[in-house]
């Protein structure tokens, strides 16, 4: 995302300023010799970049919703390997399209090729769907599942934050071709790794209209197929948390990049890369370290409530920041961003048995795709507010996160009332698994005397 953002900004700055001689990766606030012209032209570049990113993301997100519905509906027929391989291949096609546009300096509409390919194959949401399904297959139905999913998200984030540093350095110190080539090669390696993974949960079924109806009923079963009213209430609250939470995160990541390049900060690609690394390292290390350590003290999603409160303060600080010190203060508050969604994902997974994990995560992925589509329009709020208050969108994020905090409190209240039932279900499932293992045939040790051979 850092690569695409800077590449678009550079291409559009060339259109606005003509044959520029300066480097927008190190001097995003261009034309400093004429402040009045710089302000108007800088706003225009910011607005154009935001607008074209919104168009690309809208195209991909709308297609992602349809693709994730397909991947979730036929989760058992496809198998876990295919559910990872298909969206990773789409992401690779998009990385290759960015490389081609940068190499041949093609018109920007050629980037739609990669957007469409990534969208119809599931995109990042499809990758998350396959990853979480794989984890649910190999973890028991207890707090270890919540921990496993949190660790997966934390490790993914740490790797992504490291890539931000490399991308920032390569963007500013080399041409755009080097980071684009690096991204494309990394994506191809991921395709190979996914192809080598052992397959799981694949059931051979003949594709038919009846299978489609059956799979669709299975997909929505976490919401309508459960007779327990308490579980239904928790699922509805969790769905609302997903929509609001992912809408914020999706919009925030894109707007913050443009915000750091805007006045009065005017950060270079290297500075933004290091800042992104620090932010992602803080909240992902918090997931990896604090979730395991605090599991015994903070049950349910109580740690997520603390994280949401910290995020509200962080976004308010972003909104009124006017120097670098405020941005670094906001960085310290970013530890809680990953808690709400990771914990509610793990706790809702504990509400269902193994057979319902596919439909559950498919529903979550669909909600995630929808929230991404909703979050795209936050880019238009940022564009419209540039003229009077560039930080206005962060106040909107703070309000939306406050809603998430309230919903998490409701979920925690419902979860406490259901906790005893949940513990009994987990014990019963673990006991059934132990009983199944004990009934497996064991090769008896031979105690019979050796056969004697008669002499003829």
Automatic annotation (TrEMBL):
Its Gene Ontology molecular function terms?
Answer: transmembrane transporter activity
Ordered alphabetically, the record's keywords are: Membrane, Transmembrane, Transmembrane helix
Q: Which residue ranges run through the membrane?
A: 52-72, 84-104, 110-135, 176-196, 234-252, 327-346, 358-382, 388-415
What is this protein called in UniProt?
Solute carrier family 46 member 3-like
Q: How does it sit in the membrane?
A: Multi-pass membrane protein
**Has the keyword Transmembrane been applied to this entry?**
yes
Q: Where in the cell is it found?
A: Membrane
State the residue spans of region: Disordered.
434-456
Family annotation (InterPro entries): MFS_trans_sf (IPR036259)
Q: Which GO terms describe its cellular component?
A: membrane
Give the source's domain of life in one word: Eukaryota
Its primary localisation, in coarse terms, equals membrane
């Amino acid at each position: 995302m850092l690569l695409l953002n800077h590449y678009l900004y550079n291409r559009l700055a060339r259109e606005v300023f003509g044959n520029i001689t300066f480097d927008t990766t190190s001097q995003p606030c261009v034309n400093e010799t004429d402040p009045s012209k710089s302000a108007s032209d800088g706003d225009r570049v910011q607005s154009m970049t935001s607008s074209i990113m919104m168009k690309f993301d809208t195209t991909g997100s709308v297609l992602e919703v349809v693709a994730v519905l397909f991947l979730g509906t036929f989760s058992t027929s496809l198998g876990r390997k295919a559910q990872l391989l298909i969206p990773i291949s789409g992401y690779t096609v998009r990385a290759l399209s960015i490389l081609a546009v940068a190499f041949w300096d093609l018109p920007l509409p050629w980037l739609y090729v990669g957007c469409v390919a990534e969208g119809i194959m599931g995109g990042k949401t499809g990758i998350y769907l396959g990853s979480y399904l794989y984890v649910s297959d190999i973890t028991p139905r207890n707090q270890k599942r919540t921990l496993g999913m949190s660790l997966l998200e934390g490790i993914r984030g740490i790797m992504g934050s490291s890539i931000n540093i490399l991308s920032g350095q390569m963007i500013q110190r080399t041409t755009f071709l080097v980071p684009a080539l690096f991204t494309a090669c990394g994506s191809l390696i991921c395709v190979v790794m996914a192809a080598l993974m052992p397959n799981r949960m694949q059931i051979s079924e003949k594709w038919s209209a009846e299978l489609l109806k059956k799979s669709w009923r299975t997909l929505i079963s976490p919401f309508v197929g459960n007779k327990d009213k308490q579980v239904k209430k928790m699922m509805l609250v969790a769905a609302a948390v997903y929509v609001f939470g992912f809408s914020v995160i999706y919009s925030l990541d894109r707007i913050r990049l443009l915000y750091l390049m805007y006045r009065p900060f005017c950060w270079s690609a290297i500075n933004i890369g290091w800042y992104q690394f620090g932010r992602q390292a803080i909240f992902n290390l918090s997931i990896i370290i604090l979730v395991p350590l605090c599991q015994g003290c903070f049950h349910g999603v109580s740690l997520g409530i603390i994280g949401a409160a910290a995020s509200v303060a962080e976004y308010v600080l972003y909104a009124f920041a006017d120097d670098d010190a405020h941005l670094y203060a906001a960085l310290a508050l970013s530890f809680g961003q990953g808690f709400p969604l990771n914990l509610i994902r793990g706790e809702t997974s504990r509400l269902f048995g193994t057979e319902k994990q596919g439909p559950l995560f498919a529903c979550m992925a669909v909600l995630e795709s929808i929230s991404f589509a909703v979050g795209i329009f936050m880019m238009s709020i940022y564009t419209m507010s540039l003229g009077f208050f560039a930080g206005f969108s962060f106040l909107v994020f703070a309000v939306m996160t406050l809603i998430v905090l309230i919903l998490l409190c409701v979920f925690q209240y419902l979860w406490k009332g259901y906790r005893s039932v949940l513990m009994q279900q987990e014990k019963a499932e673990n006991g059934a698994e132990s009983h199944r293992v004990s009934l497996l045939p064991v090769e008896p040790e031979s105690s019979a005397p050796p056969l004697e051979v008669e002499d003829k």
